[in-house]
Sequence to fold (852 residues):
Amino acid sequence: MRQLFDELKISLATTDQIRSWSYGEVKKPETINYRTLKPEKDGLFDERIFGPTKDWECYCGKYKRIRYKGIMCERCGVEVTRSKVRRERMGHIELAAPVTHIWFFKGVPSRLGYLLDMSPKELEKVIYFAAYLVTYVDEERRQKDLPELEETMRAELEVISEELEEWQAARLERLEEELSQMEEGGAKAQEISARRREGEKEIKERAERAARESELVEEAFDTFRSMGPKTLVESEPLWRQIVERYDSYYVGGMGAEAIKDLLGRVDLDAEMERLISDLDARSAQRRHRATQRMKVVKPFYEGKNDPTAMILEAVPVIPPELRPMVQLDGGRFATSDLNDLYRRVINRNNRLKRLLDLGAPEIIINNEKRMLQEAVDALFDNGRRGRAVTGPGNRALKSLSDMLKGKQGRFRQNLLGKRVDYSARSVIVVGPSLKLHQCGLPKVMALELFKPFVMKKLVDQDLAQNIKSAKRMVERHRPQVWDVLADVIQEHPVFLNRAPTLHRLGIQAFEPVLVEGKAIQIHPLVCEAFNADFDGDQMAVHLPLSAEAQAEARVLMLSANNVLSPASGRPIVTPSQDMVIGVYYLSEIVEDEKGAGSIFSNVDEAVMAYESGQVSLHAPVKIRVGEIAGSPEMHDLLKGSLGSLLTEEPVDGSRRLDTTVGRAILNGVFPLNFPYVDAVVMKSDLRRLIEEIIANYKKNEVQKFLDGIKDLGFHYSTRAGLTIGLGDVKTPPEKGKIIAKYEKVAEKVQQQFLKGVITDDERRQELIEIWMRATDEVKDAMEVTLKSEKFNPIDMMIRSGARGNVMQARQIAGMRGLVANPKGDIIPRPIISNFREGLSVLEYFISTHGAR
Fold:
């Protein structure tokens, strides 16, 4: 049964909740029996806990088939049900000693540390059995009995002192006797002095031992007198002394048990009051600490979560199908890393249980508890603390945290990272004949994408008897298949996506048009939205399947409905390059062209005259433009924004207008009532025109206009026959004179520097200004030279905005000018040559600074 839910909440699981989820306790580290290949009882794959490995079949085979559904086999204890429950049922490991959850103790910031107001280092010492922690002190009783306890301590110190004195006196007496006997026996002086030294050393050692004992008694009392909850005692002998003398006045210990006891004693109400008052403290450090602690304390205070749930007494065991074990060809097994980590926990837990039953010494028990804590840490988050547990080949094992976090984790890889079928991918090429809402889809690709739809249609039209034969027909590319495919793709949009998808226009819907070849064709105007070019870029195709998805694609994502940039609200479908140059060429006017001064009664007559060679596109002529004159209302509305592109007064279509055949053709693609554009149209003008048309006309008219401009641009850029040759690069004749003039000025500045009139910095600055002026003068002269030639390709490209700029042309035809060195300082000596003339060795060397 599918489990549907509306929301998912993540919270702390208590030990009781972990037990309630479980279907049984995992007691043994075994996985499967290597001879029968069946799961071991009480092991990590036990069928009694996690469910049967085969559908409707118990472990021993007594019950088979669905008719025994729900029966629990009395022989093997396995429920007869579907094997897929092994993906859902959890088990648990009952721990012999509590352990701390590493996420809450070791995370940044440490949740446990903030809640208990202890540093992570102190917590680590307690949790890993390096220090003892006091969790509770009976303050009232301690204060009451303190004088009496101090007296007892003083008396004990006196006893130690007296005992020492008595022993020393007796030992000295005995030593003197021994020495006198040795003298009487005629012992050598060396032997006597050696015996004396030995006796004195023994007395000294005893005195030191007594001093240490007294010191320990005093230290134990001082620690006891000052200690409160959260006090740490790192010395083992000192703790033993405190336990021996003052055990009934406090509670304490080490490991997760001590932390759990401390958590259980946290008064959240009092803690919240203290934090709220700390928020108004004068010290900025205290305020910051209170703010940080509040983030941890407040949820516990307001919610139902119990802080002690951060200490675990049982560990959940995830379903076996989520940590599988599979047999490989050679009879060996591949297993999930989690099984190894669970096995370590179970082994250490069982060993600790056995040691507790045997009544082993405390030091051994504590060591085993620490190892259990480390095993659970590795299971939850391997490598978070200390060295990671490694498997074969020294590879760190993947823990539960590793399964969830990062790019390959459950969330990003499986839950958020969707994978789809019905998708394709290929190189893109330009489709100049496509409409704005269309894309060219290779026939073979389309057939594979629409395969299920084609197969259904083949059966519906009785071209195939059943789905199987329809599939065979599609795979063999039978002729009937292509007609059916053409039918199927009608009004079924597809998505095109180009990586990286940086904004929502990186994926758009198009109506597919079947094309030959293997490359996807896209409309030239959508390139800017996709940031696509045709130098080997690839695009992915996705197919919306349901009616709702198709409707959504058509209404919201169709390229014709997405002509504005979501970033700026300005058109993102502006023509570029060839289209710009074509429109510029079409709208240019040249006074003495063929047919200048001709008069035409309408636009069709003028176009006919142009096509028969009677008149040039650019010749000034008189035409009665009729309908394409536009309406006076629209003229008045757009005059402010389009200004220079429109005539001063609204055009009367019934009167002759001074214009060109090219401009009449251009105005033919504008929507109805749009005012007559009577100017040279450049790239920036096209953008303004498109903006106004989008703002004032319906979507279908906008699309029609964009496709019209695209077709016109391509057609007339072809008719223009625009090419660049070396002869088109015209160096201004006056360049030599300009350079010579400024060389003299530069020489004067150099002389002034040599005479000491100006500083080196002033010299540099003046030279830079001189050569910048020289560069600008050469540039201006070059522009005049380029404009003087009719339809100079470089001049057309730059002026129309199709490609390049004046600075680039200046370097090719004028002079390279000043360049900066790697430090960013401008070199005061310019590169006088241009690329057409060629650079000298020194100039080439200097120019490499700016190269990339």
